[in-house]
């Protein structure tokens, strides 16, 4: 990546799904430092320690899966859901939708939110979040939902020695099952 940057083939270098150990190793062993780290961030996985590291080192954090399991797309995720009173009360207070509250939560944490949608109306709603801000207390309340729950775990890399996420004690057969079924994602 540094060669591509030196040849002016890219303006900057970004990485995704790195943990603090990997970021520090990259930082210590690179001439050109990464400008961006793309990670999953939402109220159920706040990633405070990693985000603090990035801020200390001037790395911008892009937050993917900004809604987590809150909108109910994955039923085994921890609470809250979109109908949680805290979320609906905030939505009512600001005359916004719950997804808009979740996106604003990320912006007010100084993160770059990257929601995914192909629905024209939802894309418009996702952009319509610049006319309000959450209070520090509201951000803290939303952050209290954190359970370190990942909506997306790139299981195809599960057996890699530098797999960036927490590993459960799984048998080889269970790991193989995860890898095979992650191809469906």
What does this structure look like?
By secondary structure, the chain is of the alpha/beta class. It has helices at 2-6, 20-28, 48-57, 85-94, 98-108, 120-127, 136-143, 172-182; strands spanning 14-16, 36-40, 60-64, 112-114. Strands 1-2-3-4 form a four-stranded parallel beta sheet. The two termini are 27 Å apart.
- Estimate the mean pLDDT confidence: 89
Query: What is the element string, with H for helices and E for strands?
Result: HEHEHEHHEHHH
Assembly type: single chain
Uncertain runs with pLDDT below 50, 5 residues or more? none
According to DSSP, the number of beta strands is 4
Q: How big is the Rg?
A: 18 Å
Shape category: globular
What class do helices, strands and sheet pairing give?
alpha/beta
Count the DSSP helices. 8
State the helical fraction: 25-40%
First and last CA, distance: 27 Å
């Amino acid at each position: 990546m540094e060669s591509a940057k030196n040849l002016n083939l890219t303006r900057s270098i970004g990485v995704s799904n790195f943990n603090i150990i990997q970021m520090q190793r990259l930082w210590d062993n690179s001439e050109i430092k990464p400008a961006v780290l793309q990670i999953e961030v939402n109220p159920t996985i706040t990633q405070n320690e990693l985000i603090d590291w990035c801020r200390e080192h001037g790395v911008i954090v892009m937050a993917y899966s900004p809604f987590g399991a809150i909108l109910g797309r994955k039923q085994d995720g921890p609470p809250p859901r979109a109908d949680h009173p805290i979320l609906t009360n905030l939505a009512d207070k600001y005359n916004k939708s719950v997804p808009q509250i979740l996106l604003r939560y990320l912006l007010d944490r100084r993160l770059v939110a990257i929601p995914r949608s192909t629905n024209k109306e939802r894309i418009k709603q996702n952009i319509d979040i610049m006319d309000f801000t959450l209070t520090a207390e509201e951000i803290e309340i939303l952050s209290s939902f954190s359970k370190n729950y990942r909506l997306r775990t790139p299981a195809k890399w599960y057996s890699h020695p530098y797999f960036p996420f927490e590993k459960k004690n799984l048998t080889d057969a269970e790991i193989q099952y995860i890898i095979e079924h992650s191809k469906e994602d």
